[in-house]
């Protein structure tokens, strides 16, 4: 029996999660772990397992330390070969954890960022994480990849 690729999908609530759910539809044949800030995995999201992370933003950045430890714990339990996030801050922390362990990482910039790359997207790019924009003009201006839109 062939072993399935282990993929971790991470997103914050709202549009980030909706966009990631569209990605998850394309990966149904993979071993998917979903990580989010909802109490439970939304019914519209494909995935075999779900883990909850605390949410934070620039306004309460001190929570990032707690999220870092949550990410380390989840990563050790799942050991994915690829981590994909549509944002926001908790997804960036998980990508950082993945990079520390040599895991492939992708930041898929939100469709809402149609004029410039988000701060988290810029940080991800600066840390050597593969960044995709869903807007061709943003990709060109930011020197990141563009392969179309999820929405």
Q: Separation of termini?
A: 34 Å
Low-confidence stretches: none
The class by helix and strand makeup works out as alpha/beta
CATH superfamily: Glycogen Phosphorylase B
- How many strands? 7
What is the CATH architecture annotation?
3-Layer(aba) Sandwich
Roughly what percent helix? 25-40%
Note the beta-strand portion.
Answer: 15-25%
Shape: globular
Task: Compute the CA-based radius of gyration.
Answer: 14 Å
Total of domains: 1
> What is the CATH T-level topology?
Rossmann fold
Organism: Vibrio olivae
Pfam families: Alg14 (PF08660)
Keywords: Membrane, Transmembrane, Transmembrane helix
Protein name: Oligosaccharide biosynthesis protein Alg14
What is the strand and helix layout of this fold?
Blueprint (H helix, E strand, L loop, with lengths): L5 E6 L3 H12 L4 E6 L12 E4 L11 H15 L3 E6 L1 H12 L3 E5 L10 H8 L3 E4 L2 H7 L2 E2 L5
Protein name: Oligosaccharide biosynthesis protein Alg14
Keywords: Membrane, Transmembrane, Transmembrane helix
Please name the defining characteristics of this protein.
single chain; Rossmann fold; 7-stranded parallel beta sheet; transmembrane helix; transmembrane; Oligosaccharide biosynthesis protein Alg14; membrane
Give your account of this protein's structure.
This is Oligosaccharide biosynthesis protein Alg14. It comes from Vibrio olivae. Keywords: Membrane, Transmembrane, Transmembrane helix. The protein is 36% helix and 22% strand. The chain contains five helices and seven strands; from the N terminus they run βαββαβαβαβαβ. The chain is globular and about 40 Å long. Helix 2 packs across helix 3 and helix 3 packs parallel to helix 4. The chain has one domain: Glycogen Phosphorylase B (Rossmann fold, 3-Layer(aba) Sandwich). It has a seven-stranded parallel β-sheet with strand order 3-2-1-4-5-6-7. Helix 3 links the parallel strand 4 and strand 5. The chain has 151 residues and is an alpha/beta fold.
């Amino acid at each position: 029996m062939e072993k399935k690729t282990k993929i971790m999908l991470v997103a914050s609530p709202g549009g980030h999660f909706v966009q990631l759910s569209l990605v998850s539809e394309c990966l149904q044949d993979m071993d998917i772990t979903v990580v989010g800030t909802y109490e439970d995995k939304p019914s519209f999201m494909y995935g075999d397992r779900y883990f909850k992370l605390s949410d934070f933003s620039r306004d309460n950045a001190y929570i990032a330390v707690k999220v870092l430890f949550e990410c380390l714990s989840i990563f050790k339990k799942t050991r994915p070969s690829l981590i994909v996030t549509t944002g926001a801050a908790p997804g960036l922390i998980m990508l950082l954890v993945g990079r520390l362990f040599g895991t492939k990482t992708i930041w898929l910039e939100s469709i809402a960022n149609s004029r410039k790359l988000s701060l988290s997207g810029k940080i991800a790019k600066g840390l050597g994480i593969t960044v995709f924009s869903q807007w061709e003009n943003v990709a060109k201006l930011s020197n990141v990849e563009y392969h179309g839109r999820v929405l």
